[in-house]
Amino acid sequence: MNIILLGPPGAGKGTQATRLVEKRGMVQLSTGDMLRAAVQSGSPVGLKAKAVMEAGELVSDEIVSGIIGEKLDELSADTGVIFDGYPRTAAQADSLDTLLSDRGRSLDHVIELGVDEAALIERIVGRYTCANCGAGYHDVFKRPKVAGVCDVCGSTDFKRRPDDNADTVRTRMEEYRKKTAPILPIYDARGLVERIDGMADIDVVGAEIDAVLDATS
Ligand code: AMP
To answer: How confident is the model at residue 217 (pLDDT cuts 50, 70, 90)?
Structure first.
């Protein structure tokens, strides 16, 4: 099964993708994670992407579709894929169709996580992760059980994304409205879109996603 999680920054795509990886053994392909890894390693892609990401703008379609193609080639044909943060433009949606059909895959669902934009800023600016194991936390909604210590691995080292500040988040939302939201009608016309309330509790959202996937598996 191949699915897309679509929604503005902070809608919970990463959280739900992680859950699907754990529950169903699917593979999460997050272009944001891949680009952050490229920036970290100082690779040519990372050097090109760094400033664009810090500004909250979109990295070029060629770069992101290129890295998605490379990752798909590493997977066996029967591995289910969750596309998280990709596609983000009509050109990327086109490329994804080709990337999938070239590999004998097809798209099963586009799950749109609907959210209240006003609440997103608070969600995003408060989030941080364990620098060691990647577990996610939030200043208000999900603090570690012992202050300053990761619940999962015990590390005391945490990090925040440089683009998770209020100004950059506004640009990221604007990019979503202008370039990403317009791809929904393309998938709607193909009967692929399922709309889920992303403001609900994480487990409630997860159960609704499960219901969509179980109805077709
Ligand atoms: P994310 O982790 O999905 O919020 O992505 C973080 C940043 O990476 C975005 O604000 C963009 O600068 C870049 N990015 C991630 N995915 C894409 C994509 N599919 N197309 C263009 N830029 C992307």
So the answer is: low
194 in helix, strand or coil?
strand
173's tokens = 């939302």
Strand partners, 4: 83, 110
Residues with Cβ < 8 Å from 167, sequence gap 6 or more? 56
Burial class (CB in 10 A: 0-12, 13-18, 19+), 178: exposed
Q: Kindly report the pTM of this predicted structure.
A: 0.92
Looking at ligand 1, which residue's alpha carbon is closest to its atom 1? 32
Pick from 18, 31, 39 the residue to mutate for probing ligand 1's pocket: most ligand atoms within 8 Å of its CB. 31
Output the average pLDDT for the chain. 95
Residue identifier of the C-alpha nearest atom 10 of ligand 1 = 56
Query: Which tokens go with 95?
Result: 């490329």
φ/ψ of 172, rounded to 5, equals -60, -40
- Alpha helices, DSSP H, located in the chain: 13-24, 31-41, 44-55, 61-73, 90-102, 117-125, 166-175, 184-189, 202-214
Residue whose tokens read 């393309």? 186
**Which ligand 1 atom is at minimum distance from the Cα of 88?**
19
The answer to whether 199 and 187 have CB atoms below 8 angstroms apart is no
